[in-house]
Design goal:
With about 270 residues, this protein is mainly α. It is built from nine helices and no strands.
Length: about 270
Amino acid sequence: MLDFVWNPNGYFFWLLMISLFCWILERFFPWRRQQKAFRKQIGQDFFWLIFNGHFAGVLLTYLSIWIISQINNILFSWSLPSPDYLNLFSNSPIWIQFITYFVLSDFIEWGVHNLLHRVAWMWEFHKLHHSILELDWIGNFRFHWMEIIIYKGVKYFPLVVLGVSNEIILSIAIVATLVGHLNHSNLKLDYGIFRFILNSPRFHVWHHDKILKGQHGQNFAIVFSLWDWIFKTAYYPDDKDQPDSLGFEQIEKFPQRLLKRFFYPITR
């Protein structure tokens, strides 16, 4: 029944291993020493970790299979090939598949993340992620289930057109999860000169600053900070390590209970 937990070929196994790894790192090398390991609302974040890390993905998979079959039937009736028929990279070397889809996927996610802050109805869902007041590794998975639908929906077409293998998709998901956990962790990392390429805790903490440094925010990077430096949405002050406070304006009006957050803003 719990084979998915201990299966190295499954994502959830690696999610648990990465989570344990980052938790241990925070215990030995904490950036904010006054921050407790079991902080306020940590119980809610364990729910989001398990739900978003496994169950939401399973439910979305079944839904996606049905939707894709309907779309393929429509395309077939119009005498058009289905997207997965193209398989542009199916015969390419593994390393080309990995690099190409990793970079493309991250750029798409950077764009979606940017939109989550710019489009009003999308921001209402994204508020949950920014409701965290003390960043640590598990904050990486405090996000609304609607974000999974948005991200997966936007990434679906390039994924199937390229024909990337399931092994590559899993590998990229594992690497992205590790980077995401580290970015939210209570660790003072910036990777030196590579901070202009890779996202880091010291870079990402400013994304959660309560005071916006741009009209819609700053530092939207998922894995590669490169996109923020290119499109001038990067903020990295030399005279200060981290913001005075995290969150967003009028955060006190945001629901505190898990059930209300789960259905917010649908039942608002």
